[in-house]
Structure formats: C-alpha cells, structure tokens
Amino acid sequence: MDDQTRVEWRDWGQDAFDEAAEADAPVLLSLTATWCDHCHEMDAETYAEPRIAANINDSFVPVRVDVDRHPRVRDRYNMGGFPSTVFLAPDGTVLTGAGYLGPDGMRQVLDSVRTMWQTKGSGAGRVPRPLREDNPPAGRLTSDVESAMLGQLTEAYDEVAGGWGGSPKFPLPDALEFALKRDREMALRSFDAVSANLLDEYDGGFYRFAAERDWAGLQHEKLLDTNGALVRAFANAYLLTGKDEYREPAERTVDYLTTTLWNDEADAFANSQAPGEDDAHTIDATDRSMADEPPVDEGVFAGPNGLAIEGLLTYHAYTDDERARRYAERALETLQDDLLEDGVAVHALEGDVERDADGEPIPLLANQARVLSALTTTASVLETDALTDATAVADATIDRLRDGESFLDGPASGAGLLERPLRPLDTNVALADALLEVAVLTGEERYREVARETLEAFAGASDRFGVQMARYATAVSRLLEGPLVIRVAADPGTDLHRAALRMADHEKVVVPAADDLEAGLARVERGDQRSDTAETPAELSERVQSVLE
C-alpha cells in the first residue's frame, strides 16, 4: 500500500518506540487496510506530497500497521475507522488522533502536534478509556437483558429505510438474528433492506456498509467476516420463513466466497476485496464484465475463515447445498491442519507468527471464539470428531486468556499499549456463546459455568448496550432458558439428523450420534423439559412443537 508514499515507514514493534525515545520525537501511527479505499487515497494525496513526507520523516517516527494483520494494535488505537492517523508518545500513550487527513489538514495537525510535544512532551499522552477501566461492571443475569435489547432495537428501528440507527448503516447480522426470534416483522424488513441495498447483484457478496441513513453512499469493499456472518443470518431467515428471497442472497454470497474470495493455493478463504474504481459498481452488466476485477487481499486469517465455515455449514444444513459443504470442509481442513497448534488458532497462514517466550503461538480471543464456533457447528452438522479440536480450543482459551471472570483479547504484553489488558465485550460474548454449545455437545457443565461467569462479568452495564451487542442478549437468553436441544442417536447426514437441523429455531443445538438414546431415535430437550422419543422426522416435529409450547 505504501509504495506510492514518500514516508519512511517503520514496522510496528519496540524498536520504533525505542527510536522515538532516543530521538525525543513523537510516533506517527498510520492504521490502514488493504481493502480501505480512503487509505489508498491518503497515500496518494497526502503521504506522497514531498514536503509533508519530509516533515514527517524529520520530526516523527512513522509507523504503519495493517489492521487485519495486527488486530491488537487496531483495537487499542483505532480512531473510529480507517485510515486512523494517531500520534503517540514514545511510551505508546496517545497524544491526538484523527481519521483521513488531506494535505492541508495534515500540515495543520503536524504543526499542532509538534507544538504540543515541545511544550508538554510525554505529559500530553493519555491512555484511552477502555484501557484505563480494566474490570467491567459485573451483575446478575435476568430476563430483563433480553427485553431491554428488544427495546433498544425497537427504538433504533428505521421504519422508513429498514435496519437500525441513522448513518452510517451497517448490516448488523447479530441484531438481525436476535430480532428473527423476537420481532420477526421488524427483522424481515431489515433483512429486506440489507439485501436490497448491500448485496452486489452482479458479483454476489455484500458490501461493508452504506454511509447514509437511506442506504446511499455505499462503501464497496467486501470483507470475509461480514459476508460469512451474513450467509449464516440469511440462511437462518430462510429456515424460519422458507422463502427464497432469503435463501437467494445467501446462495449468491456462497458463490462469491467460493470464487472471488477463494484462495486456491491456500485452500481457504481470502480476507477481503477492495472497492475498485468508483464507477465500476454503477455501469451495466456488459461493461462491468469487461472491467478489471477489484484487487483481493489473499491473506488467510483464522477468525474470518471460522466465520465463513460456520456460515457455509449453516446454509448447507438447511439446503443440502454441496458446494457450500465442500468448500467449508476444505477451509476447515486447512484451519485444523495449518492454523491450529494445541488449541491455539494461529492468526495468519503466512508471515511471522507472534509467539511467546516459550515459542508457543500467541492466542487472540477473536480467533479463538470464531474458530470454536466453526468447530461446534461442524460437530453439529457434519462430523462429531470436530469436538476434539473444539474442546482443545475451549481449554486453551480458558487457560491462557481468562483473567478473573472474563477474557483478555490477548496476552497483556508487547510494544506501546499492548501491555495494557483489554477485555473486548463482543468477543467475550462470542466465546461465551460458543462455550454454551460446547457444554451441550460434550455434556461437560464446566463450559457452561465459564460462559455464565463471562456474561455476568459484563451484566452491570447491559442496560447500556446498543443494538450492535444484540448477541449478548441472545447468549443470556440461551443460558437462562437453555437452548432448544435436539439429541439424535444417528450419524450426521441421516434423514432424522437432517430433519433435526431444519427444525425452525435457529438458536437450537443439534447433537448427533447421541449415546444416551436407542439407535435411530431422537429427543427434544429444553432446560428441565424432556420430550418423548421420536423415530421419524414427522414425530420429531411434533416433539419440538410440544417443547416450544
């Protein structure tokens, strides 16, 4: 990305901060992404300007970080989007920060930071609030969490344009899935808005977000994690409605993931696709077929691949789509063979792997949670042997990242503010939700207790969670009520197992090859409820209805 700039970028690491300390100069941290159009624009218009580049090179220690390859740096220094332009003291504390800066804006900020540094020095540095408040407010879990989130969604719902909130408009797959079970009309109108506005009708796949409340101002980058999550969400909408208008966007996105975002050499999914030329998405199909394809970041990352695997297997479970199953299996094999080491998901397939003093790969909570969900979905849909890796991932995460009652995003060590602990709510919730499924699939209650304690660790602030955290309410509901569990004494792929997967509750857990039932039978459970056994798909449907009622 930086080949057109004149800035002498350093890599992220302690050496850059040591250089800044020795020179008594601030660090200019540039957070970028390969898919980020504004990042490329800033390189071409700002960092390529000779006087600006000379100013930076002479008075600052410039450091460039790819946010997909260094997520812990991203999460500590993100200024609300990318590019993020952050000025740091040599101890890693933040002097000031901004997003995109054109040449004039950059000149003003450089002068301002230089003056600040000359007058205050490191004393002007501050630690961002999430890193100052180490322990989240704990509390008791009650059904009020679910009702409060539904209230948040109702209040934020856009009656005119669909979706939630004003601008920018994101697809919010977790909110879509939460609302499916609790206000289906609101959910389906939002699904309709997402598919009508963010789905690329020509190439398939979903754009990242829209800048305006009415879904105008599309940001045309396509990210693997967004698309993997939306395949799952739309597959679940199809499960509950049976309507092709929800199946088809999932199908189109599966096609996109298995073609454009498939890295054939790695046998896994690539990370993202850049937007391309501004007018490429508005020309007609004939001209578009002749246009150059926007570039793809071929990097293979564990967490986004986990989301894609989970999405494809969910779609396969409801449709028997063989393409989705085949590509999910191929990516899963790469993940298990090349990206898992003793329960730790290595962040990237290629490049230097961050390791601790003992030579062990450093676990990142987002990777652990997403890979764990992929493995529990695999165990439920395809192959129960995946539980071996699932329990290894769960145990490694608990052993290495659990601190008190919640989880850190990674080890509290490294350059800059990496040494400060961060407890991200979203990935704590994702892990807790996955641990609930491990508990059901293995019958080991200890995983459920860790999930409970993790959710309780944030409960004191739950009344302030916005719609972006709908999954917290989903996980609390599953914990308190118990998810719908369908135990099937048959192997994956049998008619009874396939029927269990298609029972209309997308928050259920299906346990194949259950050893506490006679062969060929199934039973439905929820909390203390136990149904009579069922032998046929029709009988199973009756048992599910009796438990749900």
From TrEMBL:
<feature type="region of interest" description="Disordered">
    <location>
        <begin position="525"/>
        <end position="549"/>
    </location>
</feature>
<dbReference type="InterPro" id="IPR036249">
    <property type="entry name" value="Thioredoxin-like_sf"/>
</dbReference>
<feature type="region of interest" description="Disordered">
    <location>
        <begin position="120"/>
        <end position="141"/>
    </location>
</feature>
<protein>
    <submittedName>
        <fullName>Thioredoxin domain-containing protein</fullName>
    </submittedName>
</protein>
<dbReference type="InterPro" id="IPR008928">
    <property type="entry name" value="6-hairpin_glycosidase_sf"/>
</dbReference>
<dbReference type="InterPro" id="IPR024705">
    <property type="entry name" value="Ssp411"/>
</dbReference>
<feature type="domain" description="Thioredoxin">
    <location>
        <begin position="1"/>
        <end position="115"/>
    </location>
</feature>
<dbReference type="InterPro" id="IPR013766">
    <property type="entry name" value="Thioredoxin_domain"/>
</dbReference>
<dbReference type="Pfam" id="PF03190">
    <property type="entry name" value="Thioredox_DsbH"/>
</dbReference>
<dbReference type="InterPro" id="IPR004879">
    <property type="entry name" value="Ssp411-like_TRX"/>
</dbReference>
<dbReference type="InterPro" id="IPR012341">
    <property type="entry name" value="6hp_glycosidase-like_sf"/>
</dbReference>
